[in-house]
Amino acid sequence: MTPLRKVPVTDPIATRTYDCGGRGTLEVRLGRPYCEEGNDWRCPIEVVGPMTSFRQEMFGIDPMQALLHGIYILATVVEISEEKKSGILNWFGDHERFGLPTAEANSQFGLRATKPED
To answer: How far is CA 90 from CA 3, 56, 67, 93, 99, in A?
Structure first.
């Protein structure tokens, strides 16, 4: 497996723009997963704002895993961003919830795996 690389998202499949209280915006971009070196899948992600810049490729054993890793890392980067720490980051006026999956959100909505009924 090749090491993770910091590449720009050139083919985004999803984007989101957060307001930073008159100081610009925080842009979140999720790239299209692609296969590299046989079985390795990669998914580029990017967060660019007035105080935060993050760019990375996440990986997985298939496109779904690479995509999910990318989404969860994007959620983490937004949560620990300088924009959130300083209180200027918001999504439709909400300064605490940003519409991305988190462990807290999963438990809040009662999401958990269950065994299928026989």
So the answer is: 33, 23, 24, 5, 10
